[in-house]
Design brief:
By secondary structure, the chain is mainly β. The protein has 1 helix and 7 strands.
């Protein structure tokens, strides 16, 4: 009886250790894209971030500090990052946006990190 119990316990531990979460990126391919722009005070700027992945997500992982608008929108043309500085702000802003996607196998294994530098004059 003890042998059966130990065998079942060992099989249970092996089965539970082999499970992976589908929400975690497993050995991702990471691509870094640097985007730079200079705008005037109180001007708006948009950056194209490509198409929305059929499987995946997008998020601002490092938000700008001095903004009136800083968001990702889903447009017919694709994903757009929209930025407008806080009124009368001059200086440099940095935003980081991470897009995770899959090739269709439910495994989020592709990641693009957009590093956006904006100079406001």
């Amino acid at each position: 009886m003890k042998k059966i119990y130990l065998l079942l316990l060992a099989l249970g531990l092996l089965a539970s250790s082999g499970c992976d979460s589908k929400d975690e990126i497993q050995n991702p391919e990471i691509e870094y894209l640097d985007l730079d722009a200079t705008i005037g005070q109180n001007q708006n700027i948009e950056f194209s971030l490509g198409s929305f992945p059929s499987e995946g997500n997008i998020e601002i992982t490092k938000q700008a500090k001095n903004y009136e608008i800083s968001k990702v929108t889903f447009e017919e043309s694709g994903l757009i990052y929209n930025y407008k500085p806080a009124q009368n702000f001059t200086g440099t802003e940095y935003v980081e946006i991470t897009k995770s996607s899959s090739i269709g196998d439910d495994n989020l294994n592709q990641k693009t990190i957009f590093k956006i530098n904006i100079i406001i004059e």
